[in-house]
Specification:
With 275 residues, the chain is of the alpha/beta class. The chain has 8 helices and 13 strands. The structure holds zinc ion. Residues 42, 44, 47, 138-139, 157 line the site of zinc ion.
Length: 275
């Protein structure tokens, strides 16, 4: 939640089952400026489905995202897949007692963005600015948001999943080269604070740069390992399974079903071999 002197923006929509809690938390903040924007960082189910619920409840909220994200979320086929994932993940969270109830399945309707934010465009909240930085690689329409004056970088999944400053699982689901280039771009901004899409925060410029360097290195390490295993004669299925085991052992992927983990690592293997 980004609070300015004139308006507030909620960056990242999470799952639909999280929306009631998020709205209650915002209410409890007792802000004297209204929530105006719902800001999409990237077009994946676990980052946008909460916005579906919020927009239904409060249609005047302005849903913002990249042009590419808008085009993808406007596809009924995409949203049909997303609402199914939203239900599956929501039920897993409910099972883990992290959500109050099993979520209703959302209708499989296209999600229309109200406003396209262009590369480097700034959303002014009054004394606080959010700048959109294209960071494709995890997904085609990924944006990171740089908040000034406090130099916080909201980077969603652009660096993959971070468990700590030193433990990072790369997620270059769309394009390996663009993913690495995006991380280099974020490094050049010299942020003071990083906020990742799945909870991790990194504080201080030195730690932020260290984290981004490690995220880049982790991507190359994964790519090198996958290529090496194939050269040693392992089949692509074996390599994908090996990395799915590592994904599971990483510890933050427990909300994802095992077959989803294997689908993710098959995709990572494909992307790793494209360059
Ligand atoms: Zn994602």
């Amino acid at each position: 939640m980004i609070v300015g002197n004139e308006a507030c923006a909620l960056v990242e929509g999470s799952l639909s089952c999280v929306a009631p809690t998020a709205l209650a938390q915002i209410e409890a903040m007792n802000l004297n400026v209204p929530l105006k924007y719902l800001v999409v960082a990237h077009e994946h189910s676990d980052h946008v489905c909460g916005f579906v619920t919020m927009k239904k409840q409060t249609p005047e909220l302005i849903l913002v995202g990249s042009q590419t994200a808008a085009e993808i979320l406007a596809k009924e086929k995409v949203m049909t897949k997303f609402v199914m994932e939203d239900k599956v993940f929501g039920d897993v969270l409910h099972g883990l007692k992290l959500a109050d109830s099993s979520p209703e399945m959302l209708p499989p309707e296209p999600l229309e963005l109200d406003m396209i934010i262009q590369p480097n465009q700034v959303l002014d909240l009054g004394g606080v600015q959010i700048k959109a930085i294209p960071t494709p690689g995890h997904s085609p329409g990924s944006l990171s948001y740089f908040v000034e004056p406090d130099r916080t970088l909201l980077m969603s999944d652009a660096a993959g999943l971070g468990k700590s400053q030193t433990e990072i699982y790369p997620m270059f689901f769309y394009n390996f080269q663009q993913y690495v280039e995006s991380l280099k771009t974020l490094r050049s901004i010299m942020p003071q604070r990083l906020a990742l899409g799945h909870d991790l925060m990194v504080e201080g410029e030195e730690n932020c740069l260290d984290f981004l360097d490690r995220a880049i290195a982790a991507s190359y390490d994964m790519q090198d390992d996958m290529k090496k295993q194939l050269q040693e004669g392992r089949s692509p299925d074996e390599v994908a399974l090996d990395w799915a085991h590592r994904m599971h052992a990483f510890g933050l992927f427990e909300i994802f079903p095992d077959d989803a983990l294997l689908a993710y690592t098959n995709l990572l293997l494909k992307r790793a071999l494209e360059t």
